[in-house]
Specification:
With 229 residues, the protein is α/β, with parallel strands linked by helices. The protein has 9 helices and 10 strands. Strands 7-2-1-8-9-10 form a 6-stranded mixed beta sheet, sandwiched between helices.
């Protein structure tokens, strides 16, 4: 059983989906602390050839708020209009925009569930067949932190392999996981470029940008461009 997990992000970059595509079960870490100015409610798109930050409004944030204690705000229609203007001439706009519209018009107020719904809908579009589980449903309230929390996830799901994003190398030790009979791997996304109108390529944008400029088959190939460490 291969398991992966991460905080729910707002239309995350391609590496997030590569990791998801490798797993049998993907745990949406909704009961972790909400971090301000993070990718939980922000990401980058392309506007007029430039990298542009979009932000989903959030409500009810306090110093120690968990992601699933925060509410999704009320600027979703504004974001939808911005995305329409930014990508209306993109080659796959007619395929992708209805999906983005459905996601942004979702009336779910809980931020974690709103983001989780968006992850599931895009995964369906990309033919990613992982099973989604919310961390709060799996663990309930827990004081476990960092690697102890992750190893507990793996044990509960009978995982023999856990895959994390490359940034996890600073947090997790492979030897500690091996002691629990869990093979820990880190995913590093490869170099990927594609045509964005007639502009010089701008990297590390939201999955929205990739879907707007690439077919499902092209994205399927991109999902394989990575290294496991």
């Amino acid at each position: 059983m291969i398991v992966g997990s991460n905080q729910p992000y707002f239309f995350p970059y391609l590496g997030y989906w590569q990791l998801m595509n490798l797993t049998d079960i993907y745990v949406i870490s909704d009961s972790m602390q909400y971090m301000k100015k993070s990718y939980i409610n922000r990401n980058y798109i392309l506007i007029d050839g430039h990298k542009y930050l979009i932000t989903l409004e959030v409500l009810g944030v306090h110093g120690t708020s968990l992601i699933n204690e925060v509410k999704a705000g009320n600027n979703r229609k504004k974001l939808m209009k911005l995305l329409f203007s930014a990508y209306k001439k993109a080659p796959f706009f007619d395929d992708v925009f209805p999906l983005i519209e459905e996601i942004l018009l979702n009336e779910e107020k809980n931020l974690a569930r709103f983001l989780g719904h968006s992850l599931e809908k895009i995964a369906q579009y990309l033919s990613i067949e992982t099973k989604f589980i919310y961390l709060s449903d799996l663990q309930g309230d827990t004081d476990l932190m960092a690697s102890a929390r992750t190893m507990d996830i793996c044990k509960r799901l009978n995982a023999n392999t856990y895959i994390n994003a490359i940034g996890g190398q600073e947090l997790y030790d492979k030897e500690n996981f091996l002691k629990e009979n869990i093979d820990l791997k880190f995913l590093k996304m490869g170099n990927i470029e594609y045509q964005q109108y007639k502009n010089e390529f701008i990297t590390n944008l939201s999955i929205i940008d990739i879907m707007m400029f690439n077919s499902k088959e092209e994205i399927k190939n991109m999902l394989q461009v990575y290294t496991l460490i």
